[in-house]
Amino acid sequence: MHTINKKSTKKSWANAIAQPAIEFSSTQLPILTGKIPEGLRGTLYRNGPARLERGGMHMGHWFDGDGAILAVHFTNAGTTGVYRYVQTAGYKAEAAAGKLLYGNYGMTAPGLIWNQWLKPIKNAANTSVLALPDKLLALWEGGKPHALDLQTLETWGEDDLGGLTNGLSYSAHYKQDAQTGEIFNFGVSPGLNATLNVYKSDATGRIIQKAAYQIDGVPLIHDFVLAGQYLIFFISPVRLNLFPVLTGVSSYSDALQWQPQLGTQILVINRETLSLVSRGETEPWFQWHFANGYVDDQGVVIVDIARYEDFSTNQYLKEVATGETHTAAKSTFSRVNLNPQTGKVAAIEQLSDQHCEFPMVSQQNVGQVSRYTYMSGFRRGTDISQELLNAIARFDHKTNTLTTADFGENRYPSEPIPVEDWLLTVVYDSNSHSSEVWVFESDRLDQEPVCKLQLPSVIPPSFHGTWKPA
Predict the structure, then answer these.
(1) What global pTM score does this model have?
(2) Who has greater pLDDT, 239 or 9?
C-alpha cells in the first residue's frame, strides 16, 4: 500500500472503510425522525465487505473484504438491529493468526510463492443474501453459501443446498419467481474452458435440477436474467489469463483481460427443462448487474441492464479498497431487445444518461414487466472518478422519467430495496461518521424520508440486500 500524503484527494466516504467495521448484537434502534410505517413488518438484510485489512496488511480489491451481515428487524414492538461478520473458515483462521493468510479475487496469498498453491482462495461471503424460510444464506460467487440464523446471524457453516457437490459454486445473484417460489442460480467452474452450471431450487433453497454448459475461455459472469420462461446469460468479453493465476504471479482481478473483439455472447435457457434454446452474439459491453427481464406481447425478450462501455469499472472498484479512486467508470441504464429463439439482438437503447448501478425491481415483478426500476447513482455534478454512489433513484418506464433522492453532501446510501410502497436504504453519513436506515415512500423519493433510524456503529458501504416479510 502506498502512503497517502497531505495532498490526498481522499473523499469523505473513505472514512467508512478506514477501519474494520464493529459488530453489534440485537439492539433497539432509536427513531431519529418520522415514524415507522405500520405496514412495514419484516427484516432488511444487507451484505458487504466490512474488513479490508488485518494486522497492518491491506486487501487488494474491494471484493476481497470479509463479509458482514446487517439485519434490521421491523416488528410491532419496535425495530432492532444486528450486525455480525460471517464466520467463514478463512475469517476465523486469519483472526486467530492476526494477519492475512489467503489469496482472493484481487490479491495473491501473502508470503512465499508456494502459498498460492498451498492455501485455497478464501470464501469472503460478502456479496449478497438469500432469505429462505429457515435460514439466511450469505452468498459469494466463488464458493458455497454460508447458512446463518435469521434472527441472530449466528453462522452455521457452509451449505451445499443438497446439490453443490464436487466444488460447485453458487453465485450471489439468484433469481426467485414470486409466483412459484422457484429459485434459479448458477456457478462457473474454471478450466481451460469454463463450465456454466445452472441450478433450479424449490422455495426452501434445495437444488432440484442442474445443467452444465461449456463456454469459451474463462469469462467473468456475475449476474443473469430471469425473463418469463427463459434464463438468459450475457457473457461480456472479459477473459481470464489462467497461466499467471495458476503460477501464483497474478490475482484473478489483474489477470482479467478486456477483449472486445469477442463481442458479448448470449445463452438463452428454458427455465423448465434447463435446456439450451439458443446462442447468440452482439456488440461488446460489460455489465455487473441486470435490473430485470420479461417477455413482451410479441414474444420479444426485454432486458434492462447497467451497461459499461468497457471493463474500467474493475479498476475503479480496486481503487475503492485504498480509500482513493481516480478512474471514471460510467454506466448507463440501457435496454436490450432479444429474439429468444435465435439469440439475436434486435435493438439496444439507452433509457437514461445518468449513472446506474444496483438496478432492481420489486420482488413480485422479477421476470415480469415492471413499471418501475430502482437503482443507485450519483448526485448531479459529482466527479464519478473520485466519489462513491451517493444517490438513489426510481425510473418510471411509463413516463420515461427518473426521480432521484438527493442525500446532501457526504452521505452515501446503499442499494435501494423496494418493499411494497416503501424504499429502504442504509446511509453512511460522513458528516457525523454514523450510519442510519432511511425509509422513503417509493413514489416520493424527492421528498423527505418517512423515517430515519440510528444504527449503533458505522456500516461500510455494502453490495446487496433483500427483504424478508414477517
Answers:
(1) 0.96
(2) 239
